[in-house]
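Re-running Alpha/beta fold hydrolase to confirm reproducibility after the cluster update. Everything else is unchanged from the original entry.
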Amino acid sequence: MTTEDGVRLWASRSGAGRPVVFCHGGPGLWDTLDDVAALLTGLATVHRWDQRGCGRSQRSGPYSMARTVADLEAVRRHFGLEDMVLLGHSWGAQLGLRYALDHPRRVLGLVYVSGTGIDPGTTWNAGYSRNLRSALGGDVARWEELKGRRERTPAQDREFSVLQWSADFADPSRARQHAERMATPWLEVNFACNAAINAEDKREWGTAALRDRCEELRVPVLIVDGEHDIRPRSSVDSLERALPHARRVVLPGAGHLPWTEDPEGFRTAVGAFLSS
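Result of re-run:
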């Protein structure tokens, strides 16, 4: 599909049922939500897309929250959806929330998976950093070496990402396997996109104005957390309190990608929300 400013985005539609549009994590990554789409077979018509500059979409900016929200609106129009449920993971949960705040009449519901809430990043970054290093264990030295390099080859970018993503799973015996699967095929992280949007988030997230807007949102929201996500789940508490129509499900034994380690629990929670 093509946005109104001429940027080509990869998008797909599959399944049958209530329309659900995915917002993948990042920023700067691509849609790795194949397993989520499979879990929702029979429950939803799933719409997936790679965000601007990412994965199979055209490598072109500008990169900002507002621009990405506009691209999500372009996806809705492209598929001819009057309204939709949004399912956002990690950074994509933030994107889904922002779209719902800007376009509440277009959103039937929001599934907010493994997001980091509306507080400033300073309230949870230190805990995340400690948990990340702890989860990496014996790989932390190699991760730090790759992280500190001013330039990396594509192979080193992939190695760095696989190491970091491996910390997102609760079961260390299978963590590297799960991370390798996420990185296959390797579509290259857009670090420029990541830096630009994260810098914007640091300026705008955690404001009283954002909290006030959340308190006024009438869209139903399902918050889904993995119990062992290395991003402290307390970061989401204030969002849960602010939203008038939110309920929260915590999946035991799961990390940042809870559908991977508790697929049945994830399908049950999301399925109940879609049918309500």
